[in-house]
Amino acid sequence: MAEVQWLPGIVALIGGLGAGVLLALVSFRNSRGSDASSSAAHSNPERNRDLEDLQEQKTEVLRALRNLQDQRGHAPLSGTQEEVRDLEVRAARILQQIDSIQSDGAGAESDAPIQAEVRQSGSKPAPPANTTFAAVKWAAIGAFFPIVAFSLYLSTSERAEGEVMTGAPLGVERPSTFQPDPIPPGQPGAPVQNVPPALQPRPSAAVDRARAAVSSEPESVAAWSELGYALVDAEGWIDAFETSKQILTMAPGHPDGLLIHAIVRIAMGQRDVAQDLVTQALTAEPSHMRGLMYQGMLAMQRGDKDAAHAAWNRGLETAGPGNGFEELLAMPAPMMAARSGATQGAGEHPPHPKAAPPLQGAASSPATATTGASDATIRGTLRLADGAVPPRGGVVFVIARAAGVQGGPPAAVRRLQAKNFPMAFEIGPADAMLGGPFPSEVTLSVRMDADGNATTRGPDDLVAAPTQASAGASGVDLILAPAS
Question: Are residues 230 and 300 in the same domain?
Answer without folding.
Answer: yes
